[in-house]
Specification:
Strand content: under 5%
Distance between the termini: 36 Å
Number of strands: 0
Largest sheet: none
Length: about 200
Amino acid sequence: MTLSSLVRPRALGAASLLLVAGSAWAHPGHEVAGGGFAAGLTHPLFGLDHLLAMLAIGLFSMRQAASMGRLVPLLAVGGMLLGAGLGWAGVALPGVEFGIALSVLLAGVLVAALVRVPAALGSIAVVAFMVFHGHAHAAEMPHGASTLLYLAGFSLATLALTYVGRRVSGWLLAREQRVLRGLGVVIAAMGALFAFG
């Protein structure tokens, strides 16, 4: 038994515990003093469901065709903005919380399976996943916050998280795909917990 064979399961186990410990953050109202940009920026970071979905989408993107993969962070932001716009326009989406949980579950499965999908299908899936997240962000905007600053904050957070996911995925694809698959399994399990727990 080598040191690396011991480290991988322990590292994955530690990551799982951190994710489970954070599940209490799954989707509370996260109020930030000052509202506006700070609220938008921190909302995806303090909602574990949002955080996992955006990271998973970034992880997923590195296995896709280069042309689509590079666009994924922008597609994620586009889906967020579309969802927020629908929310602020008063368009109700049925099952927003379930849609968010399902997006985490499905994105985790795609990562775990190292799936490559046609660019059009992958693009539609990313936008559809993020529409639910954007709709929830709109509903949870702090009272009195600047809409434009809030949009700027959560757009920046979305870009940052998906790019982090891309970097981590690229690094793991070149070195240890089993860890990447394991992260996908953990993310999918958390999505199942959000949806059915």
